[in-house]
Every structure is written in structure tokens, then in C-alpha cells.
Amino acid sequence: MKNVAKCLAESLTFLRDSGLKIDKTTCVGHSLGAHVCGLISNFLKFRAERIIGLDPARPLIKPGNMNRLDSGDAKAVHVFHTNAGYYGETGKVGHVDFCINGGKHQPYCQYTSNTNLCSHIWSICYLAQSIFQGFEPYAEPCSRRCPSGLRGLRSLRGRNLARYAVRNAIPMGMTTPMNAYGSYCIKDDQPPFCPTSPDSIGDQRCCLDYPPEDVDENTLRRRRFFS
Fold this sequence. Notes:
Blueprint: H1 2-17, E1 26-30, H2 32-40, E2 50-54, E3 76-81, E4 96-100, H3 115-121, H4 123-130, E5 138-141, E6 153-154, E7 170-171, E8 182-187
Parallel strand pairs: 1-2, 2-3, 3-4, 4-8, 6-8
Antiparallel strand pairs: 5-7, 5-8
Helix pairs in contact: 1-2
Protein name: Lipase domain-containing protein
Pfam families: Lipase (PF00151)
Subcellular location: Secreted
């Protein structure tokens, strides 16, 4: 990871020297990539603006090791937890830690062949959804560690932001305030960024469409939409 981080740091430094506005940049990394974003800071002569870590990897990462993502790696470090304790890190990692559905297992992954891997990967789809203005998931302050109990705002997928203006809720992802701090929770039993109609936002790669045949129809989560 060090070699990758060093290469990226050199590229970012070159882009800054060529006119790139560093305060407009965000390093986004999933799994081990989240730790790579953190390691970049070791090779920069300036402070990175923001890092978004998508379920930072737990395997192969030693607790307390400097070669991992933490809140000192950028002005703002925001972390999504979707498989904490398995493929993903547990506990507090960044300035803001989003604990999604308890942070351990995602409910829409329960009928897949690998619940942990599905939960780990689907953090990417939450970020993808957050890019679209008005559809950002919102989360509310909660316990200090992830995984935690299933609590928090039930996601309305950003379609009615007025209903989120309670209990100091903040948006997840690209619009998370730079000065936000603490742990935030959200409950969402539907796959994020999964389109439900031809004109809705989303990507079918963020849908799940292979539940077993013997599962009751009322139990099934959102199916993939075929146009």
C-alpha cells in the first residue's frame, strides 16, 4: 500500500503545482483503498482536504499501526461502516463515522451467497447515491462505536429533506459538513442507489435480484428494475 500511496501523493502534488485546487479535492477509497487514502498524507508536504473511507478494511490491518486511515490524515475524514468486525474496521476511525444499519450486516444482503462481502461492497452504492443532490442519505447522532444497535433515521433517500431536519441529522457522503464530528446512524432496508423506475436515479449494479425461490414475496427486498 505504501508504494501506491506514494505514487498517488506524487501525482496529487504535481496536479496541485499545475493549478488544481486542493480544497476542492476528496480522496475516496474502499476497503484497503481507504487506508491508501490515509497513507497518502505521509508523502504530502501539504494537508489533504478530505478523505471518504468506504468500510475501511479490517483484515491485514493491525490496530494502532500508522499504516492505516485515521482522523489525522486530512482536514476531514468521513467513514462509512457497513461490515464492521468482518471485512471492515470497527470503532471510531474518522472525524465522522457513519454506522449504516448497525454497521455490521446490511439487511438487503441476507439472501446473497456471502452476506459479509455484499455488506462490505455496498458502501460504494451509498456514496454513489450521495452525489445526486436531493437524494443524499441522512443520519443522526448515535453511539460512539460501530457496530452498534439498529437505530437512527430511516432513510427516505433524500426525497423529503424537511423530514430529516430533526435531532441534528447530517447528510452522508459528498455533502457531509467539513466541521461535522462524531458517530451517526441510519436505518435503511433497501439497497442504495438501486433504480425503481426508468427515470429514477441509480445503477442496476447496486441492485440485488437473486433471492431464493422459497422466500415469501413480502420478505423480498427491492428487486432489480428491468426496463
